[in-house]
Write a structure and sequence with these properties.
It is built from 15 helices and 10 strands. With 389 residues, the protein is of the alpha/beta class. Strands 3-4-5-6-7-8-9-10 form an 8-stranded parallel beta barrel. Helix 6 packs parallel to helix 7. The N and C termini lie close together (11 Å). The model has no long low-confidence stretch (mean pLDDT 96).
Amino acid sequence: MTLRLPSAGRELRTYTPRTEPAHFVVSSPRPAPLTSRTVFSAAHVVADPYADTSPDAPAAVDWDATLAFRRHLWSYGLGVAEAMDTAQRGMGLDWAGAEELIRRSAAEAKAVGGRIACGVGTDQLPSGVRTLDEVRAAYEEQLALVEETGSQAILMASRALAAAATSPDDYLDLYGHLLRQAAEPVVLHWLGPMFDPALDGYWGSEDLDTATETFLQVIAAHPDKVDGIKVSLLDARRETELRRRLPRGVRCYTGDDFNYPELIAGDEQGFSHALLGIFDPLGPVAAEAVRVLDTGDVKGFRELLDPTVELSRHLFRRPTRFYKTGVVFLAWLAGHQDHFTMVGGLQSARSLPHLARAYELADGLGLFPDPAVAEARMRSLLDVYGVSR
């Protein structure tokens, strides 16, 4: 059987789907922890397709399917980074939904012995510029909730702080306050404007070199309260240079969905751990690759993970913030959910040619446990769009 897939130039190309998945997709999951790297997958949420809602209404989440996907990730030994931007935080999932997601996922993590870290932000604040005191209080509320659940905290970049801060000192003061009161070491998250334009100029400067110095000052003042940093700037050179300047014991978790194999593999001066949105669809292959790396086989690690970069770069192409659409699309094709519906109607954020190419790349990698199911679902989407067979 073949499919006719549309390209951006309006042509239809013939594609022959593979008939068997890659071996790591159907092999028995191994929940034993990875040893050479700490690896988190930033997991998506599954929308409730039967909810009578609208894009600007509170999120309607299918909790059973959402938690089942987290169990899927834990079954491979991966950690789950919960309530991050992959879960549509700030793009359809409001604070009420994020709070319930954190509580439910943390309880599930305890039940199955899975590792979990949860995003702490300020998205309960109304839109518009807020005061720094209001931003701090919002962070404190969310930090208390995450710590109450027993999860590790990830201090996410805040749109409200970016709007309210007038100098690097505002960042130094606010983050210093939060780190002093954190019960356990946290992960600091630097999310670049390619993921969220409202974060342009974070750390007090649009110049990344200047911003980096402020970021490092925060860490240097409280190294005992920083487990690590998550850097999402899509700049491998900058991440490597930043990684080399971290205090001893502070980890770098790559958030670079363009260059993750080389950053995780590292060099003679160190390596990055991982906290990646692309490890949502790549969970089984990511776990397999890191287990190979656990044996010291860097070449084997790269042979497994390097071929996935083309898919990742496709999903995260500009506008990068809409990568979530491709992530959920692949979860549907892989059978992790029964529909291609997203919180806030975000399934419409990518074009049919974009989705068709994502299917082709993922199928070529053998990522679908049942290629026939993926083919049938892709065919049904093509029918909806009126693509002639």
